[in-house]
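Re: the 200-residue chain
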Amino acid sequence: MRFEGGWSAVLPFVVWSGFPHGRNASEAGRGAVRDEAMKRILAVSVITGLSAALVAAWLIRKPNPEPVSVVAALKPAKPTLYCEFYNFVGRSPKVGFTFALSGAAAAPRVTQLNQIESDGTRTAFESEGIAAPLWTFEAGAPPTLVSPGEAIRILLYGYEGTESAKAQFGEVRSASAWFEAGLRSIQYLNLDGKCRRSGA
């Protein structure tokens, strides 16, 4: 077969036939889009899998929290003594004292923690930057707490271990039971009241 015009007449047909066109071109484009989407999905899947593996490895290697010590949880609170005294009208509390007790019960070291007045005024020693007063425990019948400067005296008629306590409660009594007490001071005059010991 002889082509007239030489290769200049055939070349455009050859070049054009080497490229997709029409329906074939659109299908090729969609295929390329699908391929690109699959590549992106695979990439995201790989990254997600690696992230999950790293998180799992971190959780496995993370040290477990220290268990709470049962001994510490069951450690008894420090012994305290709370006393409140009443006015003569209505038997409402006029003043209250809280003390921390340490040492032997027969001769404890007595540190005042707070003091509450009838108007609601509360003085919390140490937490408010005020030195906690150290009271004197005088063994006797009854035992007496004496404030620094001896301005206030608290008579503990039913303090645990005294003869008056044994007469009132017997040899065995609850350490948290209320017992009779009396306040002697110039500021508060003479007031009747009660005290209760708490803690070990």
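Confidence is low (pLDDT under 50) at residues 7-21, 67-74, 165-173.
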